[in-house]
Amino acid sequence: MLKYLLAILLLPLSQLHAQRTETQLLSGPDKDHTVKWQFYCTAGRNSGKWTTIPVPSNWELQGFGKYNYGHAKDTARGKEKGLYKYQFKVPANWQGKVVNIVFDGAMTDTEVKINGQSAGAMHQGSYYRFRYDISKLLKYGKTNLLEATVAKHSANESVNDAERRGDFWLFGGIFRPVFLEALPVAHISRAAVDARADGSFKASVTISGAADEAVGQLYTLGGQKVGGEFRAAVAAGSPAQLQATVPSPQLWTPETPNRYRVTFTLRRGGQPVHTVSKTIGFRTVELREREGYYVNGVKIKFKGVNRHSFWPSSGRTTSKALSIIDVNLMKDMNMNAVRMSHYPPDDHFLAACDSLGLFVFDEVAGWHAAYNTPTGTKLTEEMVVKDETHPSIIGWINGNEGGHNFDLDPVLDRMDLQKRPVVHAWQVFRGTDTQHYINYDYGNGTHLHGHNVVFPTEFLHGLYDGGHGAGLEDYWEQMWREPLSAGGFLWDFSDAAVVRTDKGGILDADGDHGPDGILGPYREKEGSYFTIKEVWSPVFFERREITPAFDGTFRIQNRFTYTNLSACRFTWKLAQLPTPGSSAAPAARTGSITAPSIAPTEYGPLKLPLPADWAQADVLYVTATDPAGREIYTWSWPIAHPAQVAQRLVPTTGPGTARLTETDSLYTATANGVTCTFSRRTGLLRQVRNAQGLIPLTNGPVLAEGETAFEGLTQQQDGANVVIDAKFGKASRYQSLQWTVYPSGWVRMTAKYFPRDYDFALAGLSFTYPEKEVKGIQWRGDGPYRVWKDRMKGTNLGVWTKAYNNTSTGEPDGTQSPQYPEFKGYYSNFYWLTLQTTGQPLTIVCDQEDVYLRLFTPRFAAKPYNTAPAFPSGNLSFMHGITPIGTKSQKAENMGPMGKTNMYYDYSKDPSYAKEITLYFDFTAKPAATKAVGKR
């Protein structure tokens, strides 16, 4: 024994510890950190000459080859290849080790040579990690030459079918990192784990070379040992099977992404020879037939989105920083899941899902067609080996929309130690129904009328401003109620607009193919982002009005899956809002709320300790923050209603008396330097002037829908006011229309009308104002984003300012990204506005609740499908009924009750049921306003 101990003491220190895998990057790690390689492109731009290219990258974004969208037919297919060369050195002390060259992703057929000799068979398939053992090809301690030939399109037609003919951009090149790994001859080549919620742990450790035993040890991420070592003997040709038990482990969920580290050490002759570490999580995944998807014994509702690996200036080459940004954006929208469409992602994205907390469905590529079995088997195995230990992955997807090769299901079953469920996107398979783009009520015996666990892996197909938030509230409330619903996955995360280096750097979404995102291409937040954030909030407020009897209590529901609301933080704010032309308001009063103990799915009271004079405020805000400190949402409730605000703002008295003159065709009212002209033939406002000149508001009020049947005007002097009344025939939808001109120069308009019977697209009144003269707007109401009838959530009551823009959501405007929030559209809960113009500002105040402001007509794309709803005539409207918006594949009417046309019916024509709008116009002379600046 003494002789043995002395022998150990005399060993070099490096041999007393197991060797870890050594790595050496040959490329850069990501889109922001690259390495120049020599490059030759065989076709397209900058082809036929040797130059350099950053690696990793897609060569189109570097000025080479041809841009291709998957639907487009490429006559040069097969001709476009990239030839790469790179010289590198390896340490002399790597000799005698196993040295692999590893490609994390290359598009798509890749042939590799080291020092002029083939490293192995061509790899076919773009999104998968592959490696070659090049130990015998290297010159140790000397310079080596790497040569790689990458074909953009594959010689294997099944690869082209699965990857290269999809509804997304196609790129070429080595787009993920390339590195060397050096391992001892005896080493661990794979370590699969299964760590369950009950604390049971097992691992299957695959060994290359001769060894005696494999030893495992669990640690916290802080480095504290968890239990003792566990070990298993190594038998030649078989993985070592290790087991352990951890009492009461901290579980991994999206709400509590607790992780551990496990270290596996390979030993021979009692000596450690190789060590690998994996970050894992304890959780149990089950698919219970005719019941639901369960994680840790709790039924899951997926609040998910589809995500491509994509950045406008780098294509499929991304970065760890971008992965963290994207996962945080999803978490900020209160999502709990993401689908990898339509291929496995970068490892750093999965690591971000692990650490920040998102369920993941990892996917074998296949878009309407599948890999053949030999190719698909190899690629599926590569995907599982790379991704299997990530606790975020709770299921595998075998192909998309018909791109399923059934021979690959047994491969996933065989490869996955955890036996996670396998689903087929858009297919009934193994007890799941993942049908895409289902209507709200989809039919007999299927979807939510069937018996399978339902979660559409794509729904509400975004296009421009349609889908996503539009329709989501209806779908989600249905999904939340239905026991067999497991939620769903929106299509998709961000607009796929690529920088065209061949067209001066413009952003190109390939027409209507790419602008499908909740976010813009550079992650600009579109309106649906905030709608999703509110609809998918795990804190649900039951609707209530704030009345004088309000005691500060709301009834709320906990829609977390695992978290008690007592772990969250709630704050409140009482605010006075600025008046027109002002940005200042009294300081808000704030406070915190004792978070109630409400278990998941349960209801309970949230009691705000408001001051006694709370009713003097204009608006109440409540903010919920999750246990990690992330804002869940901020809600707002009006305290002061439009009639109260109008009474504060509108002066009626003035220095004199309002007067009226008439001609055969016109009434002209004057007061305090303001002159208003009304047509006696149409009843419409014709012209407004003051001491500073013309205010170009004209041609109103015009009904959005319905017969006017105008018969004439009458006028009277009512004290110091002038009153003008319109008369209408029996066929008119108008009940009454009255103008009152006050001595102050302010003008009141009150209109009562009946919308069209039964159902109608639009209800309200319009005026015309020249758009070219508008610079911006300040308004009080819900904002800053516009709404649609089926996308009402995601806004807050406040005073907002916004500069004019002509953004068409999701459609790049020339060389620039769209500006958000969009300027044009409908805005809910309207109180007042001030148009900031090239001339005089115009202020309009409303004293009625439930009025929408219509601000001009958005610019819609040439081919908008169902995403260009009707707008009324004129361009400045005050509405009681507005239109919903559809998706790329669905009409709004099929997306739930909110997508139906407006309904109103009163056979009696009782005037008390008429819709009423009262507006006050400030036509008095004042200085021109400065340009607005948008904010949220």
TrEMBL record:
The Beta galactosidase small chain/ domain, residue ranges: 718-807
Keyword Calcium: yes
Glycoside hydrolase family 2 catalytic domain ranges (all copies): 287-502
Cofactor or coenzyme needed: Ca(2+)
Glycoside hydrolase family 2 immunoglobulin-like beta-sandwich domain ranges (all copies): 192-283
Domain Glycosyl hydrolases family 2 sugar binding: 51-184
The organism's taxonomic lineage, starting at the top: Bacteria, Pseudomonadati, Bacteroidota, Cytophagia, Cytophagales
Molecular functions per Gene Ontology: hydrolase activity
The reaction(s) this protein catalyses: Hydrolysis of terminal non-reducing beta-D-galactose residues in beta-D-galactosides
Matches recorded under InterPro entries: B-gal_small/dom_5, Bact_Beta-galactosidase, Beta-gal/glucu_dom_sf, Gal_mutarotase_sf_dom, Galactose-bd-like_sf, GH, GH-type_carb-bd, Glyco_hydro_2
Organism: Hymenobacter armeniacus
Name of the protein this chain belongs to: beta-galactosidase
